[in-house]
UniProtKB/TrEMBL annotation:
Origin organism lineage: Eukaryota, Fungi, Dikarya, Basidiomycota, Agaricomycotina
Naturally occurring in which organism (per UniProt): Athelia psychrophila
Family: Belongs to the ustYa family.
Any matching Pfam family: UstYa
Identification of the protein by name: Oxidase ustYa
Keyword Zinc-finger carried by entry: no
Pathway: Mycotoxin biosynthesis
Keyword list, A-Z: Oxidoreductase
One BP annotation, GO: mycotoxin biosynthetic process
GO MF annotation terms: oxidoreductase activity
Amino acid sequence: MLHRALKSPIYIALAALCASIAGNIFAHRRIQGLERAYRNLQSTPLQPEDDSHYTYVDDDHPIRLPVHLPPVALKVEETSRFGISNYAAWEDWRTTDWFPQTDGFVRLGPDGRLFGVSMFHQMHCLQLMRDAVIHNQNVTTHTHHCLNLLRQMILCASDTTLDPINIAGEDGSPGANGVGTVHVCKDWQRAYDFVTDNQKSAVWNSPS
């Protein structure tokens, strides 16, 4: 009788309903947990992470900049800034990797060991590619390096945010320009602030 009851449509429906409710409760709790974590990250003050256990000798150093970058939203928008060759474009693009001492480098550790920061290396490469377009340059070793670096960094980020189809080509083929799409990113301003503060510190007065 029990075996027959377990096969009844009513029992199966009830079991499915219970499973659905349990799944929704679990999903709701998971979403709430993610939202709490997101809020906590947003409220985290800018401060360097503790890197005192590293000697900064040979490979004994952190793999990334020792500062926490919480998630932030970036909505893709069209802009008249960051053009190609007009005068204002030069000033706009210069802001992407301008710092008090040098382009996006930091000195870390007790002896002020010099490091580059990948984010600003990539910004440098964008500027180099733009310069090559403006001057119709032949491919050089430097531009080839930068093109491949940007390719690999795009693969590294693997941003799978979905872009709605919102444009059409001249032949009517569907396309997407990404405008209006919101991406979840790392707080890039904190990276700029960290490098700026680092380059203003005393360690830059006695370079190793």
